[in-house]
Design brief:
Layout lengths: L1 H9 L2 H24 L3 H25 L4 E7 L3 H9 L3 E5 L3 E7 L3
């Protein structure tokens, strides 16, 4: 009885999740106007800037949490990402047939 009343007041778990996701969808849709008018070159530049910020944030967060190093794997043919990681201090430490393993040491 009480659970039924609570469900009527607050909705089911699914109802709450849908409301939460709907907010995120509205935020994403609001970004459409700022992106849809970009040229291919502008969009590519924005994507490159996002990759840089993402790499910086990864390393900053790892340092804040006390990690000594960060390792990652990247497809050998993805030269753009390999160059990005190299700019951020990642070094090649291993490879397989199609994957390159890179590591950045975070301690001095």
């Amino acid at each position: 009885m009480i659970s039924g009343l609570l469900k009527k007041v607050f909705g089911s778990r699914n109802d709450r999740l849908i409301r939460q996701y709907s907010q995120v969808v509205r935020q994403i849709n609001a970004l459409e106007a700022s992106v849809s008018g970009l040229t291919d070159a502008e969009l590519a530049a924005r994507t490159a800037a996002f990759r840089e910020r993402l790499a910086q944030a990864l390393l900053r967060r790892a340092r804040e949490e006390g990690y000594a190093a960060v390792s990652l794997a990247v497809d050998k043919t993805n030269t753009r990402e390999i160059e990005l990681y190299a700019r951020h201090g990642f070094e090649r430490v291993g490879e397989s047939d199609d994957t390159l393993t890179m590591r950045a040491r975070l301690t001095t």
